[in-house]
Every structure is written in structure tokens, then in C-alpha cells.
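Lab notebook, bench 4. Still working through the backlog of constructs that have no structural model yet. Next entry is a single chain of 412 residues. Request: give me the C-alpha cells for it.
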Amino acid sequence: MHTYVIILIIAVCVGLYSAINIGANDVANSMATSVASGALTIKKAVFVAALGNIIGAVLVGSHVANTVRKGLIDPMQFEGASQYFVYGMLSSVLAAALWVNIATHFKLPVSTTHSIIGGVLGFGLVSVGIGGIKWIVVLYVVLSWIISPVFGAVISYFIFIIIKKFILSSTEPIKQTKKIGPYFSGLVGFFITLAIIYKGLENLHLHLPLWESLVISFVVGLGGYWGGKIILKKYKEKKEDPYSQVERMACPLQVLSASFESFSHGANDVANAIGPVAAIVVIVQSHEMGTQVSIPFWLLLLGGLGLAFGIYTWGYKVMETVGKKITSITPTRGFSAEFGAAFTVLICSRLGMPVSTTHVSIGNIMGVGLARGISALNLNVIKRIFTAWVISVPAAGVFSIIIYFILIFIFV
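Model written out:
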């Protein structure tokens, strides 16, 4: 019994540590462009991101953890020896958290999802062997490295091209903004609502069919259109550079899309830290390999608070790289990247791709930069980011193997 208590305490602490590192690294996905464009200060950005992540984690967080059922390794291979699966999952989460911690220190945005996959892959190789790994999942991960950032870059590229052609290149940019802007605010409302209710609300056991989700999203989008129209109509043109005024007019829209991204991140990614912990808790308590694991409210809250703490402490590090070092960002460019990210995640999730929000966000920012030519991109920074992506899985895997053997040595 004493060993079980120790394992439970370690699992909860590791989950909290993982959530802190996820918050620190992934905050850049939603807030970096808002900070870089001047739409938000760093202090305001971390506050909005922290609040959005906590609310998303608690209200729409994963009430059913699929980590045990959908992982790279079939847990039933550990039937009769569940303690080895517990140590393996614990090793995976801690290894992923350590790798993300190191990446954040060097201001590199990496995928927390792929890091956890690397951790599971590492302990799986030394426990059940090559034949016990679901290699098709590994293939999907590799494909997502390529497909999701490329797809995101293409979407954001065309969005910014549209803004550039019909607004920024116009002789009357403010008039054009008032005319075209409401359509963008409506589309933001539509796609972000669809992304949340058609995917995220399943965790609240609200399994809305596609047609209901589309109707609700259309109503929200219509509200966004008229809301944007009313706000922009009240804007009075000033005697200064009209293009600077257009960028200021785009700030509220960018902040709104960034806030929704934070909410969605808290709702979806809290499971990366807390889901495996909940699985460990159930296995340790029941000594059985369950297929579904309910996550208690207190664990969701702990995960949300961990995300928020990570955002407040180290969130600025990766935000600087993503928002300022890849390419120059203005509110219109930032909006193009964020809108493209929401659209890309929605499409990829419906196709069943194991998409990384980090990879999508970087791809979108690159797409916005490419709209102004290859010279607008900092290729040295992009090279460093890509290198970090490639070594995420093996790095987390090596850490996981080491931690797994240490735990086996101590407790078995």
C-alpha cells in the first residue's frame, strides 16, 4: 500500500509538471502573433491565455481519457503485470515534460503531443518490443509533421493575399475594411465555433451531429458579421496613415481569435498532461487495465492551473521566437495566421490527422511571411525549429527509457 501511495503522489506531481511545461511552450500557438503585432502586451497576453486555458480545461476538458485505449501500445499486453504499464506511462509523461522544458529554455516551439508519443514509443520498445508498437500511428505522426504545417501555410498565405489585394492595396483601405471586415469576423465566429462544438463538446457528452453544429456555427457567424459591421461602422477615419488605422482596426479581431485558440488549447491539450495520470491512478487503485478512464474535476482543475502557471512563468520565451523571429507580424498578418490555424486544425481533425497545434501555427506564420516573399522569413530560425521537431520523438524516447529503467530498479 505504501508503494501505491508513493506512485500516486509521483503521478500527480508529474502531471502538474507536464501541464506547466505544456502551458509555457504552447502559449505561443495562440498569443505570439497578438504580442508581436502590438494587439496585446505580454502581460495581457499571458493573462488572457491563462484564463482561457483554465476555463477550457475545466469546462470542456477531456472527461474521458483515451490515452490507454488509443495509444501506441495495446495496454492488454500488460495483463497480469499492470505495474510495468504504470511505470511506462509515468516515464512517458515525465520524459515528454523534460524535453518540452529543455525546448522552452532554448525558446523552441515543439509539439507536446509528439513528445508524449516519443515517450510512449521509448518505453514500448524496451518493454513489449518492436512488434508491440502500433507503427501505423507512428506513420501518421510523421505525415502530420509534413502535411499540417504545409496545409496551414497555404491557407494563411491565401487569406493574407485576399486582405492584401482587397484592403491593403486599395486606394481607400479604411472604406474597404469596413466593407470586407465583417465577413472575416463572421467567418472567425463560424469556424471557431464549429471547431469547438463539433469536436470539443464530446467531452461534455454533447455529441452534436454535423448539421446541428453547422447551424449553430452559422448563427454565431451571422452574429459575428453584424457585430463586426456595427463596430467598424462607428470607426471614424483620422488624419494619419490609413494603413496604420487599418492595422489598429484589425486588433480586436485578432485578440478574439487568439482567445478562442487559448480556450480550445486548454480544452484539448490538458489531456496530454492529465489523461495519462488519470489512467495511472485508476490502474494503481483497481489493479485492472481499463479501456476508459474518467478524469475527476480536481485533476482537470489542477491541469488547468498548471497550464496557467507555465504561461505566466516561461510563456514569454517561446512567444518571442514564434511572434518576432520568424517573420514580421502586423495585426492583419497575425489574424491571417490565427484564422488559418483554426481552419487547418478543424479540417485535419475531421480527416483524423494527429495534428499538432504547434506545427500548424508555425506553418501559418510562414505562409503569411511567404505572401511577402521568401526574404521575409528568417530561415535560420525556421531551421532550428524544424530540427527541434525532428528530434522531439527520439529525445523524449531516450528520456523515457532511462526513467523507465530507474523506476523499475526502485520499485520492482
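Notes after review: The chain has 13 helices and two strands. The longest helix spans residues 242-286. Flag for follow-up if needed.
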